[in-house]
Amino acid sequence: MMLDATRGGVMLAIVIMALATYLTRAGGVFVMSRVPIGPRVERFINAMAGSVLVAVITPMAVNGDWGARMALVATLGVMLVLRKPLPAITAGILTAALWRLF
After folding, report:
1. Do the domain assignments include residue 22?
2. Which of 15, 44, 80, 96 has the largest count of CB atoms under 10 Å?
3. DSSP string of 3-38, one letter each residue
4. CB burial class (10 A; 0-12, 13-18, 19+) of residue 42?
5. Is residue 3 part of a domain?
């Protein structure tokens, strides 16, 4: 399917992407509403969260600049000490910004 780069084509692409996103999320809720959440399923869901995080972070650590790498180190350090995600994310953002500033 080919869309023109006109205003209508762009709007159609946005609507199609929004619909695909909505159906994916609604489909996940629909499927999980029919799956009994036992200890095994709960362990699977918890493991998936960590593996998705690693899959997102690894390319940034390998291919990113030193600002990204230092942000990862700062985020990990704060998370290990405080065990709270918001301060860890804040430390990572500030580290990347300051590293790239200087």
Report:
1. yes
2. 96
3. --SSHHHHHHHHHHHHHHHHHHHHHHHHHHTTS---
4. exposed
5. yes
Structural domain boundaries, residue 2? 1-35
**Separation CA 40–CA 16 (nearest Å):** 36
In a domain, 57, yes or no: no
- pLDDT tens readout for residues 71-99: 999 999 999 999 998 999 999 999 999 99
Residue 42 lies in a domain: no
Residue 26 or residue 49, greater confidence = 26
Cα 25-45-53 angle, rounded to 5 deg: 80
3-state helix, strand, coil in the chain (%, to 5): 85, 0, 15
Residue with tokens 């992407």: 17
